[in-house]
């Protein structure tokens, strides 16, 4: 089918946005639209300029026989700050406080629009890193893990608390929960990770960091490595966390008797500011 | 910022694709680009024509003071058939057979590209229905539920097997698992559903249908109603299912001794064919 430039631009934009971090050859587009590669190159120039000026992401050209273009999602710092202020406003509502120093976040984590935006923001920090897999622990971290993985176009592996008949043989480790001090188990299907995989660990909430540390240890059993760790909300405590080098978007602090709380920014913008402007 | 038509088309396409089922006024775009509404209308005409000819979805114009345009995602039947043939090929690999008549699908359900495509396909069937919420049971149905919910721009609620401290007060019911005949519990946070909500129930796998039926019963406790039910894979059994009126994408049949299996199409294209061409 032969398309005009205006229609090609609409279609290519959708095509690229659906295939982040994937090299797409000029031939793919020139065959799809029955257009010369020179026209396709001009189209890509227009898209690149728009994506970069609007902060949607970068469009990187890869030279050579297996070359093409690759869309790398990004989120401008100003958009990220706006998102954080929106979310911290919502999370600060007083009826969210639950016994045990927890915060009701289920409704926020249930909104695809928020989850996808948070996922794009986390992926922006790691956008120049090689990420092969995103990992999380069931249950509440799963949506965010998928949102991040969608931006990298890589698979998600879900660590479970016990092995399931639907997952075949598994590898399990014991770990100590940092906040409850109890020994717990985490389990991952044997075929879910190949050795050498670079894994980005994602979770929705972190207290002492025991679960995060457990996931990092579990990776060693698969000869895989930690490429990054990010949580949506961490608690602000006097005691040091069991891990470091993680990214947190927001931070929850609780008064002594857990009667009131406050939400502040996590450490995310320390990492953001190290990124050069796209 | 004033943008040229070509750059506006790129930006509007991304803007609309990120906001399905949401009414966007012409003023939003004309302010965003510093362009006259007449130019914006022409741009939308180009996008509409491309979306509809490529099967991306419909662009519906809503008249009146609160009017604008709304993007409704779709997937052409030919693309849906191609997706099903790809997935049934992958699922037919013999090493996927697990004890108990289960199939290893964790790797497929871990790929955002597949999950998002399956989500778009399911949303295409219900694209003309009013959907307020997507519901699923933890754990493996969660990614698919989010993929569907993203297409409708509605929240997801996750039913759990036991109540969690992080979710506040809950409503729970007992139900009988259709395949194991055991009494089980399902739990949903009290604040997760408002009365009258139209709920699309999603799951990855269905044997007898006990879980699906349990979720439908749970909705009654919230005075909410079932707007639809869809599963990725159902089993093909002699015994009738505990529910009807559900959609299945693929069907798994097992030999008597569970030594081999086959994947065939589910009932999805019966529903698809009722849809007029967009």
Automatic annotation (TrEMBL), chains A, B:
An individual GO BP term? negative regulation of DNA-templated transcription
Official protein name in the record: Purine operon repressor PurR
How this chain assembles, per its entry, is: Homodimer.
Phosphoribosyltransferase domain sequence ranges: 112-253
Q: Which family does it belong to?
A: Belongs to the purine/pyrimidine phosphoribosyltransferase family. PurR subfamily.
Keyword entries, A-Z: DNA-binding, Transcription, Transcription regulation
Q: Which organism is it from?
A: Scopulibacillus darangshiensis
Domain Bacterial purine repressor N-terminal spans what residues? 4-73
The transmembrane segments are none
Which residue stretches, if any, does this entry annotate as coiled coil?
none
Q: Which one of the record's GO molecular function terms can you name?
A: DNA binding
CDD domains reported for this sequence: PRTases_typeI (cd06223)
Name the InterPro entries on file.
PRTase-like, PRTase_dom, Pur/Pyrimidine_PRTase, PuR_N, PurR_Bsub, WH-like_DNA-bd_sf, WH_DNA-bd_sf
Xref: Gene3D superfamilies: 3.40.50.2020, Winged helix-like DNA-binding domain superfamily/Winged helix DNA-binding domain
Transcription listed as a keyword: yes
């Amino acid at each position: 089918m032969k398309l005009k430039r205006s229609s090609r631009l609409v279609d290519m934009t959708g095509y690229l946005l659906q295939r982040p971090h994937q090299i797409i050859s000029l031939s793919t587009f020139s065959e799809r639209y029955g257009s010369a590669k020179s026209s396709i190159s001009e189209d890509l120039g227009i898209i690149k300029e728009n994506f970069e000026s609007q902060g949607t992401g970068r469009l990187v050209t890869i030279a050579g026989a297996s070359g093409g273009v690759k869309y790398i999602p990004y989120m401008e710092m100003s958009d990220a700050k706006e998102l954080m202020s929106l979310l911290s406003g919502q999370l600060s509502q007083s009826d969210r406080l639950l016994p045990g120093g927890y915060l009701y976040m289920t409704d926020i984590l249930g909104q695809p629009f928020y989850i996808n935006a948070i996922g794009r923001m986390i992926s922006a920090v790691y956008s120049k890193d090689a990420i092969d897999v995103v990992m999380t622990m069931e249950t509440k971290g799963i949506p965010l893990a998928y949102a991040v993985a969608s931006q990298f176009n890589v698979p998600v592996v879900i660590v479970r608390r016990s092995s399931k008949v639907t997952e075949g043989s598994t590898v399990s480790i014991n770990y100590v929960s940092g906040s409850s001090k109890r020994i717990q188990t985490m389990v991952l299907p044997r075929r879910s990770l190949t050795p050498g995989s670079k894994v980005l660990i994602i979770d929705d909430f972190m207290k002492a960091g025991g679960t995060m540390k457990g996931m990092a240890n579990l990776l060693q059993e698969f000869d895989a490595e930690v490429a990054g760790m990010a949580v949506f909300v961490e608690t602000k405590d006097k005691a040091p966390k069991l891990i470091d080098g993680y990214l947190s978007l927001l931070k929850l602090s609780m008064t002594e008797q857990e009667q009131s709380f406050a939400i502040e920014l996590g450490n995310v913008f320390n990492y953001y500011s190290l990124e050069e402007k796209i």
